[in-house]
Amino acid sequence: MDNVNKHKLIKWDEMKWEPGIYENTEMSYLYEDEQGRLCFLVKLHPGSFIPMHDHPRREFAYLIKGDLILNEDEVMKEGDFLTAGLAESHDVRTENGALLYVFIDYHVIRQQIVEIEATS
């Protein structure tokens, strides 16, 4: 059988986790295509905080488990979906922890998200 057209299955207990970009987070990279688009999981441990930031291109996030607070007043619960792009900034925090599935159309390490100053 030709491996070129074979699908890819990653079992939960075989996923590799590494420290995330932000303190108290972990990431498991699931797939990257030749254009640098990525699918990955993010674990935010209880008390995690991701400062106000912008994305160079589109981010899509689905909350699998837990809850998040965006920009101090938007609550994201299990099953909720978020999309954000350039000039659609947000910060993220969780009291209890969370697990997110994320798809971004850029490589998170090579094209860093840009932290910005929060405006009052």
UniProtKB/TrEMBL annotation:
Pfam families: Cupin_7. It comes from the Bacteria. Residues 6-103 form the ChrR-like cupin domain. This is Cupin domain-containing protein. The lineage of its organism: Bacteria, Bacillati, Bacillota, Bacilli, Bacillales.
